[in-house]
């Protein structure tokens, strides 16, 4: 039997990429998923695609960095569905800039979408979940919060903030049977990935230095999220799971030795 039958889930940023794949995985396990995205058209298209596959979902346009709108949205979720079982905080974007060239606006916007947005959604979801003594929360962080990423000081700070948020929430919400975990994806083939780290044809180079020898796919993150939100994943909380095919393990020495051995 589908293990999320009858459950209600909110997945932010599910108009594209990782969020969309997570939403589909949860739908396939029987959850009714609220497809939440800044881009209303994308969210509506995802719902149409899911419905064509017989999956249950509804679309909502929301900027997660707007505290008042987030609060109104979760109130409407509670009014419509009577409960909330799952929240996946996935909305986000990436940008590059050297730190001494970054303006205040770029810094503030990045922190406000990733850190503020995850906090606002988690806070409002927690209010509903606590009433029902059940919940599963997954926050999408990044490998940038494993070791800060060059040219991404605002993104790195925001993704570390998500890890901090995850740890404190896990402590406070654990007594209510609410688990809170983070995923740190490596390089994943999505519109964000293609426009960022995978631009300029460097994908092959990343594949070569990744032990699993490929770029990640959205389904790699979706499967991890689907595992974390399983009702029986009830003793895993406050942790951050790296999903990167082993990429972060490799250092420059490994790469040099590996390349010289493969030439032999
Ligand atoms: N792709 C990667 O390599 C990678 C690696 C590590 C972490 N991540 C993280 O995964 C998450 C999803 O990224 P993706 O690669 O699927 O990107 P994506 O661009 O395919 O999807 C991101 C979605 O978030 C939405 N969004 C952006 N700002 C929003 C806001 N303020 N409110 C609501 N929705 C908003 C966008 O409209 C978009 O549909 C992001 O948090 C990203 O930082 C991605």
Please characterize this protein's 3D structure.
This protein is of the alpha/beta class and 264 residues long. It has one domain: NAD(P)-binding Rossmann-like Domain (Rossmann fold, 3-Layer(aba) Sandwich). The protein is 47% helix and 14% strand. The protein has nine helices and seven strands. The chain has a seven-stranded parallel β-sheet, sandwiched between helices. Strand 5, helix 5 and strand 6 form a beta-alpha-beta unit. The longest helix is centred in the middle third of the chain and has 29 residues. The protein is globular. The mean pLDDT is 96. The structure holds nicotinamide-adenine-dinucleotide (NAD).
Report the helical percentage.
Answer: 40-55%
Query: By CATH's scheme, which homologous superfamily applies?
Result: NAD(P)-binding Rossmann-like Domain
Number of structural units classed as domains:
1
C-alpha termini separation: 51 Å
Q: From the helix content, strand content and strand pairing, which structural class follows?
A: alpha/beta
How are strands sequenced across the largest beta sheet?
3-2-1-4-5-6-7
CATH architecture: 3-Layer(aba) Sandwich
Q: Proportion of β residues?
A: 5-15%
Ligands and ions found: nicotinamide-adenine-dinucleotide
Number of strands: 7
Order of helices and strands: EHEHEHEHEHEHHHEH
Per DSSP, the total helix count is 9
Shape: globular
> How many strands, which pairing sense, and closed or not: the largest β-sheet?
7 strands, parallel
Under the CATH scheme, which class?
Answer: Alpha Beta
